[in-house]
Amino acid sequence: MTSPTYAPSAELASKAHVDAAKYEEMYAASIKDPDGFWREQGARIDWIKPFTQVKNVSYDFGNVNINWYADGTLNVSANCIDRHLATRGDQTAIIWEPDSPDEAAQHITYQELHDNTCRMANVLKDMGVGKGDRVVLYIPMIPEAAYAMLACTRIGAIHSIVFAGFSPDALAARVNGSEAKVVITADEAPRGGRNTPLKTNADKALEACSDSVKSLVVRRTGSDVPWNDARDYDYNALAAQAATTCAPEEMGAEDPLFILYTSGSTGQPKGVVHTTGGYIVYASLTHQMTFDYHEGDIFWCTADVGWVTGHSYIVYGPLANGATTVMFEGTPTYPDASRFWQVCEKHKVNQFYTAPTAIRALMGQGDEFVKKADLSSLRILGTVGEPINPEAWNWYNDVVGGGNCPIVDTWWQTETGGHLMTPLPGAHATKPGSAMKPFFGIEPVVLEPASGEIIEGNGVEGVLCIRDSWPGQMRTVWGDHERFEKTYFSDYKGYYFTGDGCRRDEDGDYWITGRVDDVINVSGHRMGTAEVESALVAHEKVAEAAVVGYPHDIKGQGIYCYVTLMSGEEPTEELRKELRTWVRTEIGPIASPDLIQWAPGLPKTRSGKIMRRILRKIAENDYGSLGDTSTLAEPAVVDDLIENRMNR
Ligand code: WTA
To answer: What EC numbers are recorded for this enzyme (predicted)?
Structure first.
């Protein structure tokens, strides 16, 4: 199968940081001499005490230990703010675009970012937060989210952001899991014209947390919220009194920078830990190279800071590079489907980075919404979060990019801190749907799933592992290093296991084929089927549940649930609704089941293991190729499931 390729214009390639020859040269150098390559790249960051060591990594199972620049010291907020002040104090650091187009955008200069970050840092200090303490952020996409992240890094506290769409239960689990001292939240979160009562949700969560946890409340809409004087601190009042200077704490390169909870194939979400030095080097380098970022560019990543994409490509990467980064509070379709494009026009965006699910949803609304905006400022387009289908890719390329903007399809993960595979805009002729090439320092290997043997050559498919380490790699699971080793280093010894499948085509270019484990990707949101199952079985009428993904036109994957009820319970339409609401309350709206099939029984092996392969096939409406069902304890349950399947 050959794919059409789209080469960058000669003009773009000639102005790019990296052209085809330069990529080959830099990539070869990064693999041949990682220490030399990353020593040089380490210089893009200001160190308080320069590092002498570069890479010090063991992937040995039982002793996985990842260190980069370990003897250097630095401060991330100083790198994202202070070092820019002399040359670009008056330049806009953040353009904040509110949910409603009728509300004025804000342009926050680097000097203002400095002052507000210091204010927030001083408020946190006064609340007793210090180096190594955890602070949870449960906050809308408002400038204070960036101030809070940077304030934590300034005083050496470790932030853990919980997406504002998560439920109080999910928030409580993360506050308790990270033993946070403070939760930063806001009165309400406006999104798509509706206000989520964030403070009320946070209050509910805190009922399940220690009394010592304090909350710092940012005023966003100014609406009345319940107030507990013993616990709640008024950010706006305190910040107005706080000093606009705060000395940055000297941090070790391997001190934790942030924790971000993400879903795995088993159990509850795990706290991915990123550290200070390697992460910021990697975020900065990937932001500059992948988006071919140049001085003066306006960069917009539409993600939420609750996800890793928002960490690396709204806040840390762009600000470390002295960029102007757009922060958008709203949704792609409010007030209508031209909002993204209106914002691109209004702020003269040069690089635009979004998710395939948004592209598919907007494509479905027709071209007029795009065409009425002037998109001539756009130079590079990016996608992230899930495989992009060629139809959506082509629409993005032709209608949004006018055929002039290289598309960078960036493959990476919460665990990887930054892009691991992506075309570089000036270097590679892209193919719709392919993540193309490894980034500098990244050595992908394709393995035979069962044997773990390396598959050499082109035109092959298997599971995707990475041979060696890179500076942006996660270091551990918060509080559970054993789980870290088991999840990423035990299945294929000596490699980092990504959980994704991949194909290397005849030209040696990479295509991500999706997760090979029980993680699903719903509208670019990563979810463990185990989490949804455990929410379902927590309902008193549910005896057993199995959850799988199935192809969904807009969301990429939808959530398909097989539910066995307690004996005597009636499978009614009301109960279906009730279960849907139940899961939304337990986890959050993003986990809402799309299809619920009543299953009198689930296909199990004689040892009692649920055969998910079969459930996946039925959910995909591909029951003709179920494979061997002879090992099932009760083969007849499969016929019933096929008969009553929901996705026809
Ligand atoms: C998937 C998001 C195909 C993949 C940054 C990965 C992708 C998971 C792509 C990580 C892409 C991300 N093409 N699949 N360009 N980008 N994925 O942790 O399955 O939320 O393992 O990080 O998303 O999701 P996460």
So the answer is: 6.2.1.1
